[in-house]
Design a protein that fits this description.
By secondary structure, this protein is α/β, with parallel strands linked by helices. The chain has 12 helices and 9 strands. The radius of gyration is 21 Å and the shape is globular.
Length: about 280
């Protein structure tokens, strides 16, 4: 029913924890496909070769990046639903059961996602929040670890392998599914565990995005790909217009909204201020 696709690039030392978390689930409901995306680490390659010898479905390929690795796993998958899982993360058994239940019940839903708990160098709960297209069009807030209806995913074109830099593949897919009219279902429950490691791929990416060239090229790529939907320039123009109209009131309102939300909401209910900046 569910194909769990795990791209792995030099992360064999984390993979066992991911597999252990999966094996707590009902084995009749899922298959696991691991994609060795041209790993250069000897220990990772040895471990993946050993897993393949034990009967795990391991796809070996040259390095194609995250999007290419996930797509290779999806093409090799047989499940009705796809659950991407990073090699250094873990899932809860409830994820598979909840996802199948929701997707089987409502054909209009294409994506099921939930909250996460941090582990590793950070602790706590990641409250993702309910789906909102306007929020998603500003920035991504839904992790790749979501259960996706395969037919909707294939119709949308899988992950974009032409993106200039890695890191926004998930956001791109969520946007395409959203613009095609598919629904997202949020489960307010911890369904997976997100590892935080200093120097991890996502942290390296975030650091790299301090390089304005990369960040700007990614944003330009998205805006050129979705010219009728995205355009952060309109947000900047709106904020600039409001600021020019009354700079002092704008700053006071922004401070209240940021640090004194209860007071802001009270004034809003009393109709003493206008909603929004």
């Amino acid at each position: 029913k569910v194909s769990i696709v795990i791209p792995c690039y030099n992360q064999g030392h984390f993979l066992k924890e991911a597999l252990d978390s999966i094996e707590k689930c009902d084995g009749l409901l899922y298959e696991v496909i691991i994609v060795n995306d041209g790993s250069t680490d000897a220990a990772t390659n040895e471990y993946l070769t050993a897993l393949h010898a034990k009967g795990y479905h391991v796809v070996f390929q040259e390095n194609k990046g995250l999007a290419g690795a996930r797509n290779a796993g999806i093409r090799a998958a047989g499940g009705t639903y796809i659950l991407p899982l990073d090699a250094d993360n873990k899932i809860e058994p409830a994820y598979i059961l909840k996802g199948i239940e929701i997707l089987d019940r409502d054909p209009s839903v294409a994506v099921v996602y939930g909250d996460a708990s941090y582990f590793g160098d950070r602790q706590g709960i990641w409250k993702v929040g309910a789906y909102n297209l306007q929020r998603l069009m500003i920035a991504n807030f839904i992790d790749a670890c979501a259960m996706i209806r395969r037919s909707a995913m294939e119709a949308a074109g899988l992950y974009d392998e032409k993106m200039p830099y890695m890191g926004w593949e998930d956001w791109d897919l969520w946007l395409r599914l959203s613009f095609a009219g598919h629904r997202f279902h949020y489960v307010e429950q911890v369904l997976f565990h997100y590892r935080v490691v200093t120097g991890s791929m996502i942290h390296t990416l975030l650091k790299a995005q301090q390089n304005y060239k990369k960040a700007n090229e990614l944003e330009d790529y998205f805006h050129s790909k979705y010219p009728e939907q995205l355009g952060h320039g309109f947000i900047y123009d709106w904020v600039g217009m409001r600021f020019r109209a009354s700079p002092v009131k704008f700053i006071i309102k922004l401070i209240m909204f940021t640090w004194f939300r209860k007071r802001y909401n009270k004034l809003l209910k009393q109709h003493k201020i206008k909603n929004g900046l």
